[in-house]
Design a protein that fits this description.
alpha+beta; single chain; 8 helices
């Protein structure tokens, strides 16, 4: 049985970054991926993911994001490949909406540069946006997107160059803690390690029973549409955005990679189930749901469909992450689920996971993400 310092299960956004941070520390590490390296079955494909500092979800994310930006830039320098693209970012909706008020709270608490704009001022500056007049807009100039598929391969390549081993198309069947160490059983072999990092995304509850009802896969659909006025949607003219609207909570990207405006609808149709059983092929109903957002706020992007793609969210009840060790098996480190907003943090979560695997703790504040919070009684 081959022995390692740490085994990482799932070599996606979080797992690839963890592999790199462990390998660079001199650990003997193995990454096991049930699909291909850089596959399209999980949560990180579709070219890119938004990164933003005005974090409406909770101000405690902002320090992690600042470190994430530093690590993305370091990865770019090491690989000589651009991964982080800054476009500026918009959070918009009714003035009293969670998105607007949460973004303002994060900006004020962490002294982030930002502007509060009206819908009309937003259209004057960024003509691709045609928001309803009553919307409030928070503009934060540091937002943009991370090239997610490139980033996974970049982290994996750095890890391999530093001595890591990666196995694709190998399914983990069981994790067996044994006298302070761990045995990982796959459909091909058995391996031993001092620690295991479980970053299995939508399949994490198959391996971590404590998350069986707390990490729920949800089907998402992304769409790319050919703009009628392409210049309005280029990265230099169109910031990324999160918008709470009357027809749904949508997120948007400028054209990049594919010559189309990219849009997604948070919690698309609220379709949940096992990751292996959720439908993958997009439907006309999926397209129509996305076009509702386009017609409502981006009419100049309402052109022919170029591409539709499904992916997964893996949601916790409070939609915060899980980054922790198991209380009854501290040699098992749990990474994710990230509830649809995790990829931007992959660089820093990889560092945090390496800390937990090597030291049992991290200097980063991970208190928001402890697994024991789910054991607390519901407030009355």
């Amino acid at each position: 049985m081959k022995s390692f310092d740490t085994i990482v299960i799932g070599v996606g956004g979080m797992g690839s970054a963890a592999l790199w941070h462990l390998a660079r520390r001199g650990q003997k590490v193995l990454g096991i991926e049930r699909f291909d390296l850089g596959h399209s079955m999980g949560s990180s494909h579709g070219l890119n993911r938004i990164i933003r500092l005005a974090y409406f979800e909770h101000p405690n994310y902002v320090p992690l994001l600042r470190r994430a930006y530093e690590l993305w830039r370091e990865t770019e320098q090491l690989t000589k490949e651009q991964l982080l693209f800054v476009t500026g970012g918009i959070d918009a909706g009714a003035e009293d909406s969670r998105i607007v008020q949460g973004a303002l709270m994060a900006c004020r608490e962490h002294d982030l540069p930002h502007e509060v704009l009206t819908a009309r001022e937003t259209t004057q500056r960024f003509p691709g946006y045609k928001l309803p007049d009553q919307y409030a807009v928070v503009y934060q100039p540091d937002a943009g997107f991370v090239a997610s598929e490139r980033a996974i391969l970049a982290h994996a390549s750095l890890a391999v160059a530093a001595g890591a081993e990666i196995h694709g198309r190998e399914k983990v069947l069981a994790i067996e803690p044994a006298q302070g160490r761990v045995v990982v059983v796959t459909d091909r072999d058995r391996y031993e390690a001092g620690r295991v990092v479980v970053s299995a995304g939508g399949w994490i509850s198959d391996l971590i029973p404590a998350l069986k009802t707390k990490a729920v896969p949800e089907r998402q659909v992304l769409g790319w549409f050919l703009p009628q006025k392409p210049d309005l949607f280029r990265p230099e003219n169109f910031p990324v955005s999160n918008i709470s609207s009357e027809v749904g909570h949508f997120y948007q990207f400028p054209t990049w990679g594919i010559p189309g405006f990219k849009i997604g609808l948070y919690h698309h149709f609220h379709e949940t189930g096992h990751a292996d059983e959720l439908p993958r092929e997009p439907t006309p109903a999926d397209e129509e749901a996305l076009r509702k957002g386009i017609r409502h706020m981006f009419p100049d992007a309402d052109g022919p469909t170029l591409r539709l793609a499904s992916c997964l969210f893996t949601n916790t009840p409070d939609e915060h992450f899980v980054i922790d060790t198991l209380a009854d098996a501290p040699e098992v480190v749990v990474a994710s689920p990230c509830s649809g907003h995790g990829f931007k943090f992959a660089s820093v979560i990889g560092e945090a996971l390496a800390d937990l695997a090597t030291n049992g703790s991290s200097s980063l504040d991970l208190s928001l993400f402890n697994i024991q919070r789910f054991d607390q009684p519901e407030p009355t």
